[in-house]
């Protein structure tokens, strides 16, 4: 019948129609340095005015459309292992962030696709990231802080990092700190918080310096404070806690890494991202010893 079409034909026509509603932004050239946090904001405004319908109408939309992003390495289904993406809601800014390693030196091409969730339009942008080694080399003294009352995307803006660095500066008593990496606590084995107001996932912030740790930092890992941590009590820090109240640091989860005392043959403790190295295979144990999970009372 003239007024009808086969389901497959209509579906194919719809796919072709939607596939044609796409646009592209100019190629973006970015730079990342090994051992330094890389952050790129995916601003919704940069993509919103480029959607085909918006360009045809030449009018400001009467509503703020929800926009989501998908990012991947060119000719790959996902991002490179050092790079992560986060966007809390379709109305928030998206972020590409991570810390490149010496294995990543070179050029990587990232494809970003923005989706208008109201009109199903898409906008594509290609990013060329040039990764180079740090002229100063790896920071020999590194401290990894767990901030319990922040989410990862809240720590990614520049002003938030500067505020955190100021707090670290006052306890490390030196300037020139470098933010090495920022990681969500969920990516490090943390639990998803209950859906209660003001509950946060937590974020790990690793900073590095060429200057040794101060007594203020090392006393958090003293035997007495480690014992308090085993009792689920916070360590006693004699110096002024410059993080509180804005940054609630879990001092029991503070990690101090002194690369000057580690031999080349020793393994440096590195928290992985849950992705196996290429060519490797996970072999779980065949069996595990019995464990008693419930205490038994004697009669």
From TrEMBL:
Pfam families with a match to the protein in the record: Sarcoglycan_2 (PF05510), Sarcoglycan_2_C (PF20989)
Source organism, top-level taxon: Eukaryota
UniProt KW keywords: Cell membrane, Cytoplasm, Cytoskeleton, Glycoprotein, Membrane, Transmembrane, Transmembrane helix
Residue ranges annotated for the Dystroglycan-type cadherin-like domain, each copy included: 29-138
UniProt keyword annotation of Glycoprotein present: yes
Ubl conjugation listed as a keyword: no
Localisation: Cell membrane, Sarcolemma; Cytoplasm, Cytoskeleton
Membrane topology (UniProt): Single-pass membrane protein
Name of this protein: Alpha-sarcoglycan isoform X3
Taxonomic source organism: Python bivittatus (Burmese python)
Lineage: Eukaryota, Metazoa, Chordata, Craniata, Vertebrata
Gene: SGCA
């Amino acid at each position: 019948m003239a007024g009808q079409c086969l389901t497959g034909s209509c579906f194919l026509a719809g796919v072709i129609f939607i596939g044609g509603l796409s646009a592209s932004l100019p190629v973006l050239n970015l730079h990342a340095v090994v051992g330094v946090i890389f952050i790129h904001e995916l601003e919704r405004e940069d993509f919103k005015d480029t959607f085909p319908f918006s360009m045809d109408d030449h009018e400001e939309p009467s509503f703020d459309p929800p926009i989501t992003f998908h990012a991947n390495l060119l000719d790959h289904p996902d991002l490179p292992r050092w790079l992560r993406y986060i966007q809390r809601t379709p109305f928030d800014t998206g972020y590409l962030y991570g810390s490149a390693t010496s294995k990543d030196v070179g050029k990587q091409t990232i494809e970003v696709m923005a989706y208008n969730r109201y009109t199903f339009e898409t906008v594509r942008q290609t990013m060329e990231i040039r990764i180079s080694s740090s002229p100063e080399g790896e920071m020999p003294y590194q401290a990894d802080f767990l901030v319990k009352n922040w989410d990862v995307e809240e720590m990614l803006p520049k002003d938030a990092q500067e505020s955190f660095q100021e707090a670290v500066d006052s306890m490390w008593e030196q300037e020139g700190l470098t933010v090495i990496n920022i990681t969500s606590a969920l990516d490090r084995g943390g639990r998803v918080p209950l859906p209660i107001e003001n509950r946060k996932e937590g974020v790990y912030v690793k900073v590095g310096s060429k200057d040794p740790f101060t007594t203020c930092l090392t006393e958090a890992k003293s035997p007495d404070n480690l014992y308090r941590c085993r009792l689920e009590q916070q360590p006693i820090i004699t110096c002024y806690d410059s993080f509180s109240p804005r940054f609630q640091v879990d001092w029991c989860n503070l990690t101090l890494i002194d690369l000057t005392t580690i031999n080349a043959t020793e393994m440096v403790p590195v928290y992985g991202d849950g992705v196996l190295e290429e060519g490797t295979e996970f072999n779980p144990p065949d069996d595990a010893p019995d464990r008693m999970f419930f205490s038994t009372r004697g009669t």
